[in-house]
Amino acid sequence: MSHMSTLKLTAETESLINNRAVGYSLEAPFYASQEIFDLDVEAIFAKHWLFSTTEAEIAEPGDFVTVDIGPHSVIILRDDDEEVRAFRNVCRHRGSRLLDSPCGSVGNLVCPYHQWTYRTDGSLIHAESQPPSFERDRFGLKPVHVRTVGGLVFICLGEEPPEDFDEVAGNIEPYLTPYDLRHAKVAHQVDLVEEGNWKLVMENNRECHHCDSAHPELITAYFPLFGYTADDVTPRLRPVFERYQAAAEDLGAACAASQFPRDTWYEPDTRITGFRVSHLPLDGEGSSFGPDGKPVCAKLMGSITQARFGDLSMHMQPNSWFHLLSDHAIVFRVLPVSPDKSIVRTTWLVHSDAVEGVDYDVDSLTSVWRTTNDQDRVLVAGTQCGVANPGYEPGPYSLVEDDVEAFANWYIGRLHKYVTS
Ligand code: 3BY
Ligand code: FES
Ligand code: FE
């Protein structure tokens, strides 16, 4: 990845990046400084592959979503040939923003300023009052790199995207295929504004050390053992761990019966596109994220045939995580807004034939994770306040916070690479 940094970093920021204490949470400026926020946008969000939207949200030709990241705005749409494309949301005439809505559907893309008109493939088809010498084909919309994997849409704003994405796509696609997200239906979507730096949102997602106390609703379905090994399990969690082991055996058998891949890739810190996939059992009835692991939709996803099929989760750097269940999927995307503000978008997907009010109702489908997200929102806001307190100093990660550490190591590693190359 080559780049031209437009930021001139202060010596203090360079020193923070170079001297980060491994095993400890990040220094306060990583969560609070405008300079580091701008660096995050430039070095992380504008250079890496980002999960952006689902194909289900742009199911028909002309359907689009816009994604705003710092000063960048991207249009992601399905063109008339059903290809997914992404463009800079900037008119090639005098630069007006082209599409202002977060989502919608267009025939062509018409600039609101002087009506330059682009086809869904980005080509310019109409520009009024230009001289005869005007070369229309020089002024198509600027493309942004875009890739779809198993119904998930990734974009990269960098000129030369990380080359490891083919391998990552090859690794994760077999896990996603049985759920057929490409043909799923969006049942619900929520944008939650969080009063916290985007990294606090991600770090909070990367551990379940807080689950047992913070998420009473979630843990009736979800084993709060994320990051634990048999050695780390506290006496309090021992019975949970024993239930988990029994459920894991059942899930292994169910996966084998459906020839579903069961291995786990776990490289969230070392790859450029760090990620982790795991397939874990659920507690209670073991089917879904309803109370006590109960199903929340009567139609199963894709080609899944068994309700008790656990939770196929995927955690990706820098900004996403996913939970795929037998009866629905939940997709999470974090975008940075300012040093102390982020937006978490949660999208619930169901089988395209699932009928609201018959197979599912939105309230029960979304209840546990709406509640969980809100509990996490409070924890993140509290941490943002704490790290901005002059009394804050980085503290040590526990044995069950490996993935928080992996996220922090990945992040610092990517910044270091960016500032030194
Ligand atoms: O959404 C998640 O996957 C994380 C991991 C465990 C805690 N939290 C629920
Ligand atoms: Fe878009 Fe003029 S700026 S048509
Ligand atoms: Fe949480």
From TrEMBL:
Transmembrane segments: none annotated. The keyword Iron-sulfur applies. InterPro entries: Rieske_2Fe-2S, Rieske_2Fe-2S_sf, Ring_hydroxy_dOase_asu_C_dom, Rng_hydr_dOase-A. Signal peptide: none annotated. Keywords: 2Fe-2S, Iron, Iron-sulfur, Metal-binding, Oxidoreductase. Pfam families: Rieske, Ring_hydroxyl_A. Its cofactor is Fe cation. The keyword Iron applies. It comes from the Bacteria. Gene3D superfamilies: Naphthalene 1,2-dioxygenase Alpha Subunit, Chain A, domain 1, Rieske [2Fe-2S] iron-sulphur domain. Residues 51-155 form the Rieske domain. This is Rieske domain-containing protein.
